[in-house]
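Hey, I'm writing a tutorial for new members on how sequence and structure tokens pair up, and I'd like a real worked example in the thread rather than a made-up one. If someone can provide the structure for the chain below, I'll link this post from the tutorial.
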Amino acid sequence: MGWKITTLIVLVAVATGLILSGVLNTPPEPLKFQDNYWGRGAKPTSLPKDHDKIQQISINIPNATLVDLNNRLKNVRLFEALEDVEFQYGTRVDYMKDIITYWRDEYDWRKQEAYLNTLPHYKTNIEGIDLHFIHAKPKLKPGQTAKPILIVHGWPGSVFEFYKMIPMLVDPTSHGGSEDDVFEVIAPSIPGYGFSEAPHKKGFDPIAAAQMFHKLMERLGFQKFYVQGGDWGAIITRIMTLQKPSVITGLHSNMVVVNTGDPRWILRTMVGSVFPSLVGIKPEEYDRVYPSGEKFLLLLQETGYMHLQATKPDTVGFALNDSPVGLAAYILEKFSTWTNPANRDLADGGLEKYYTKDELLTSVMIYWTTGTITSSARLYKELFSGKAMETNAMLVTVPTGNAAFPHELGHNPEAWCSLFYTNLVHYTLMPDGGHFPAFEKPALVAADIRAFAKKVESLPTSNS
């Protein structure tokens, strides 16, 4: 009997070792492109001659939209706040009163619109809808080349969150970089977000967005390029590496996506609470992962919106699309707590410690003036209704870098990321910052992208 117990222990140990090592995983076959059409009505039998036209545009919201907004702000109906409450119950009533007054009396959309137009905007029709994107090209010296990079935003963000970072990538010598760090930046708006047309048919998930962005880069003439993102951007760019890994020079993320249902991840989480070094958790990472119960509770507190948007997005969309104050309260609360959960205990939610009122309201205005909050929420419904979640279990084989910010909603140690990214060449534990780092800490993100690209280009097999 003793030998049977010994054999069982050995078998369990071997199985555990294989799970932890990732030996049982094999690289996936690339995801195949689908024959998608997201426009109104039936798919045309033939495409017009100028179907691939790229048109430069300017952001110009009609005056009627601004007049209507001002009337709504004048007629807002608020409610009585609880005593001794800051942002623990959500956006604080007294803070919203301050925001409403500033929005109505001092905020200048035309000034912000002019700022938005300082970067070049374009649109092109792909799979039946108009896709908006920013294309920022550097001024190159003779013999100098730029590294193309596609950067993708998340929710409730937009391309606006990249405005401080894009100049740092396009003109690095003016922002602490060298002449070898020059990037050419393409920043699309996810369909249904801001200035991109919303899909008119159900089923538009992150896989569809990734395919559309591949087609955009092909149309722009890029044969190989970097990708970067956080939030939805992290998910979409990851899927892009699974669709056409040969064209991705490198993947940089500030919210690394892993398969939390993988037994290796679950086992490491359990073992790491007692023996962190055994599962690769560095001492400086421990407090970002544990106590796991506390971290899980925080995640539950911060993901109620996801349950709404992943089940009945149109229902909550009626309220958010009809009330600018409701929309602002909904979005600003995310900018508060996701930047730093400690902000819940501050009277202004810590918002103006990191952002200006103009920056916050411009982020809200991009959703309000385009009427896209409902279509943006639908992406959650499509994520959980389709096949996109299954891609979390697929291995990424392209060179990968991760910038891990301390106030992100979840943390995955470097050793754990290696289970899902077989070519993890760069990993940075950032000293400060949360879920919107390109908006909050643009210099840190830009510097990390540069450092990652240098590592990629020094790899023996790099052909970038």
